[in-house]
């Protein structure tokens, strides 16, 4: 799976021995307690490797802090935090520390859209123009290089087919982000301010004016398509995107710390963002407490990429905690149910966790993409420990999660380093899987 780097934007407690079931709400704010690892087929001694590795990274100042948890058979078997959430205030990292989860927002957005699919609001192969008419006549950008001068000319041609809802869900719409490359289409995105802080309606209207990077359905290309899913949720539901998420996902699952903003009462639990320096350690990005300074350092980033305000970004705008994201992940692993609440049907979750690319190129070897998630097809080809059928994604600041139906296992890693030039989340994944002992 491709890893994101915000450089291109210019821009995870001790083990305990009591049983635990994930509560829907945590009104008393007491931390959940883990079961003995051996009771769910994990080795306590091998899990100790996680502590050793992550603690060393903190000691070497490679990271300020991180937190992680592993759940198996519906129970937390490992949970631990290392270092600090804020080095300037000395606030320790915890499992309920609030993180910017960036692109881990995407699976939640896709789940929201699929709830409306279950209600008959659309079909996957419907053109999005049926609901967002501004996308009725799209063009595709064509670059040609003069062999003598090397000069690049840019023209557009009509798209051969319309963008479908499934294209949005699997990143085959032909959109891009505009900040990870410098093609003529990328430049057009930047010039038009596609990632600016807009209402979702204005974002959609603005995006529809841009040429596509690829013909729809011909290539997997990571893009703003999930932000457009947020707009589609609004149009199909008749509710604002944040209201829909709160009513249909966050409240039923008891995700009490997840949203597009951090309330003043929770600011003390909001982790600071860090960035690597030339020595290989990390520094706090203090400048991102101010919008103008953020934009001067990361000129191609929307402020909402660095602060939790602005557009209701279905592609990267949410904040959350390891405990909250576990609730969403456990619902997906449970085939749509969680503590008596059914959000999606079993068949819908199975569809979402299936590869929808087939022979469409773009993903790395051994990986496919479903409806909102990357899907492992062949761990041997990918060179990454796991199981066929496991589905996952990550966030720009290094957060990562995976859901493994074969092992009945969930892993969640939270960290705040932007760009995440060292993939600590993938290291945690290996350390988690090597502890499987049944």
Structure description:
The protein has 438 residues and is of the alpha+beta class. It contains 13 helices and 16 strands. An 8-stranded antiparallel β-sheet has the order 3-2-1-16-15-14-13-12, with helices on both faces. A two-stranded antiparallel ribbon has the order 4-9. Strands 5-6 form a two-stranded antiparallel ribbon. The longest helix has 16 residues, at 44-59. The relative contact order is 0.19. Mean pLDDT is 89; it is low at 1-28 and 287-309.
Q: How many domain units?
A: 2
CATH class of the largest domain: Alpha Beta
Order of helices and strands: HEEEEHEEHHHHHEEHHEHEEHEEHEEEH
Shape, please? globular
Question: Helicity level, as a percent range?
Answer: 25-40%
Query: Structural class from helices and strands?
Result: alpha+beta
Report the CATH architecture of the largest domain: 3-Layer(aba) Sandwich
Distance between the termini: 28 Å
> How large is the radius of gyration?
21 Å
Strand content range: 15-25%
What quaternary form is this? Answer: single chain
Q: Give, in spatial order, the strands making up the sheet with the most strands.
A: 3-2-1-16-15-14-13-12
Number of helices: 13
Say how many strands there are.
16
Mean pLDDT: 89
Q: Kindly report the CATH topology of the largest domain.
A: Beta-lactamase
Short description:
By secondary structure, the chain is of the alpha+beta class.
List keywords for this structure.
438 residues; alpha+beta; Beta-lactamase; two-stranded antiparallel ribbon; 13 helices; disordered N terminus
